Amino acid sequence: MTRVIVEHLNLVDFRNYATADLTLHRGPNVLVGRNGQGKTNLAEAIVFLATLGSHRVSSDAPMVRDGHDAAFVRARLAHGERTVLVEVQINRQGSNRARINGSPGRTADLPRYAHVVLFAPEDLQIVRGDPSARRRFADQLLIQRTPRMAAVIGDYERVLKQRTALLKSARARGIRGDALTTLDVWDDKLIALGSEIIDARSRLAADLQHPLASAYLAIAGEDHSPTLAWAQSIRGGDPEEGDDAASAESSGSTAELFRSALLAKRAAELDRGLTLVGPHRDDLIMKVRGLPVKGYASHGESWSVALSLRLASAELLRHESPAGDPVLILDDVFAELDADRRQRLASLTSGYEQVLVTAAVEADIPPVLHAHVVRISAGTISDERDVADESADQINKTEREEQADVDG
């Protein structure tokens, strides 16, 4: 199996970095620095290459350094014996651009080359926050699992924007009922793209179920029977507004249900100037002990679910991808956990091919992950070699030889 790791990262005008270069190694890599120095920005850049999105913001513009029109993220990836150079130009306005091995490519193709699973404090929002956080989690994993879904999701969002603009215009002009015949064309496009997203999300939830239960048991040390299920607007109700009730008669193909739901809500959509049916209104319902995590789970249980979702994602990608292990990024997550969960998470992630850990306090990092150390201060990266501490004996023979070669 071909193993993929990120060997080198270069940034230009990304967040607080005018320029930055970061060399990474197999096994654990530790980025240490006080909060606000730029550690998470490095992690965010790697995640963007793999998912075409950020775990911190829903739009691209905040990632471009103030006063500049574009940011550049470049990475050298080792695919076994082969090297792949990937680059994305993130534009403050307009479409982003990509280059692969120096040649222009589609940004939607970038996730084919890098698989990344990120653990971050924001993960608690997946469990406790609005439905949009759960949709973003699912869609970013979908893109990594099936890279062509990046184009499907992007096309759906464009159609949704156009259809909603038409509804708002009709509302302003006082059009009601079936008078807006031009909506039918957009309905067809919305249904075709949205049905593909809904079906892919449903398969994802089903495939995550077993690894989620295993990961939860390993993290929490208890079997609380975690479950995942989508509440879908095409089946009645409006999950976006907390109405998860499904129609008793909701049978048929996804496309048929979608079309019926659009017809049923046509008057309401015209009245509100909103598209009220589709995957953009759905919610991923998570339960432990038979109860919804949101509103019922304790803080510790919520963290266990969030961590388990990420571990389950990593296991899914590890077993499905010809590229082998995804790169794991643990971004400031250890400071959020109690000592027991900290140790459990470290032991569960240390066996992956490449792990990137960021922390404000070096002592927060369990010894099993404490290897190659890089210090970050005010956007300046200083690389420490030959880290001499009690964790050195946990670096495997191959890593020691690679380190010796680098140190020359």
From TrEMBL:
Residues 233-252, 385-408 are annotated as: Disordered. This is DNA replication and repair protein RecF. Belongs to the RecF family. The RecF protein is involved in DNA metabolism; it is required for DNA replication and normal SOS inducibility. RecF binds preferentially to single-stranded, linear DNA. It also seems to bind ATP. It is found in: Cytoplasm. Residues 6-359 form the RecF/RecN/SMC N-terminal domain. HAMAP family: RecF. It comes from the Bacteria. The lineage of its organism: Bacteria, Bacillati, Actinomycetota, Actinomycetes, Micrococcales. ATP binds at G33, R34, N35, G36, Q37, G38, K39, T40. One of its GO terms (biological process) is SOS response. Keywords: ATP-binding, Cytoplasm, DNA damage, DNA repair, DNA replication, DNA-binding, Nucleotide-binding, SOS response. GO terms for cellular component: cytoplasm. It comes from Microbacterium keratanolyticum. Residues 396-408 have a biased composition (Basic and acidic residues). InterPro entries: DNA-binding_RecF, DNA-binding_RecF_CS, P-loop_NTPase, RecF/RecN/SMC_N, RecF_2. GO terms for molecular function: ATP binding; single-stranded DNA binding.
